[in-house]
Design a protein that fits this description.
It is a multi-pass membrane protein. This is Vomeronasal type-1 receptor. It is found in: Cell membrane. Belongs to the G-protein coupled receptor 1 family. By secondary structure, this protein is mainly α. The chain has nine helices and three strands. It has a three-stranded antiparallel sheet with strand order 1-3-2. A hairpin with a 4-residue loop joins β2 and β3. α1 packs antiparallel against α2. The longest helix has about 45 residues.
Length: about 300
């Protein structure tokens, strides 16, 4: 009973705190994007990332919070389809948006003599990419709108448990492997881009550090440029994303490989599924160099992210 109560409190606390954190980040960067002298593409990408995090927390975190408090069969077919579908789309958008964030930041900090510098986008050029990401993820998750159903409306022996209250109907091999292949291809492509751009940024920071040491000037060494602060923020974000993604992947693989489901593993998988959405806004808040200087007359971040 005590463990159940602790689980309820943790689910509720992380969902509410993560949602409030993402709302705070999105609102502040909206003010920064609209009211700032320069509309920075990174701000727009971060707004989109916070928005997808909110969808994940409301669709997945809130559902598991309600289930933890003992409510059952409160979703019909339409409710299951909508919430599971939104969570899957938002998860894909989180992967793609995080990858886009690292690629754009890597281009921004690339040396001026590099050919990548000419690819530096503005905010209006980022918008079509975000739209394409939405279309792509909406399409590759569309099978859920047909195969997800509420547990109260079917013979459960015919379906596999998708969540604590929603089930997935069996599908043909062609449909199953088509959508699985598309999702796997998406994850491989965008995480490869994320890894390449993160490595590029880490190399840039290493060269910058050696350059600062070469200057032998404490005054210059203690002055961290906005680009370096921004790059560190993005790298910390991507490290957290990869850790949570790998943890979620390993737990999903384990659950799919055993016949007896361990409640500890299932609960850990839920936390790993929403962990990045919970943690990422607070990384941005803590890492933002000018957050403490915000005042009522300027409610947006003077953020270091470029």
């Amino acid at each position: 009973m005590v463990l159940k109560f602790i689980k309820e409190i943790i689910f509720l606390f992380t969902t509410v705190l993560g949602t409030l954190g993402n709302i705070s980040v999105s609102v502040n960067y909206m003010f920064s994007w609209w009211g700032g002298p320069e509309k920075k593409p990174i701000h727009l990408i971060l707004i989109h990332l916070a928005f997808t995090n909110i969808i994940i927390l409301l669709a997945k975190g809130l559902l598991n919070t309600i289930a933890a408090f003992g409510l059952r069969n409160f979703l019909d077919d339409i409710g299951c389809k909508i919430l599971i579908y939104l969570e899957r789309v938002a998860r894909g958008l989180s992967i793609c948006t995080s990858s886009l964030l690292t690629v754009v930041q890597a281009i921004i900090i690339s040396p001026r003599a590099s050919g990548w510098r000419r690819l530096r986008p503005n905010s209006w050029q980022v918008l079509p990419f975000l739209l394409l990401l939405w279309i792509f993820n909406v399409l590759i998750s569309s099978n859920l709108l047909y195969y997800i159903t509420a547990g109260s409306s079917l013979n459960r022996s015919r379906a596999g448990l998708y969540s604590e209250y929603c089930y997935m109907l069996p599908s043909g091999c062609t449909v199953k492997w088509l959508f699985l292949s598309l999702m796997a291809l998406r994850d491989v492509i965008f995480q490869s881009l994320m890894g390449w751009s993160s490595g590029s940024m880490a190399l840039h920071l290493y060269r910058h550090h050696k350059h600062v040491l070469y200057l032998h000037s404490s005054r210059l060494a203690n002055r961290v440029s906005p680009e370096v602060r921004a790059t560190w923020s993005v790298l910390v974000l991507m490290t957290c994303f990869l850790l949570y993604y790998l943890g979620d992947f390993i737990s999903s693989f384990y659950i799919g490989s055993v016949f007896t489901l361990d409640s500890i593993i299932l609960n850990a998988k839920v936390f790993l599924g929403v962990g990045y959405a919970d943690l990422s806004p607070f990384i941005l808040i803590i890492k933002d160099f000018h957050l403490a200087s915000c005042c009522p007359s300027r409610l947006y971040f003077q953020g270091s992210l470029l």
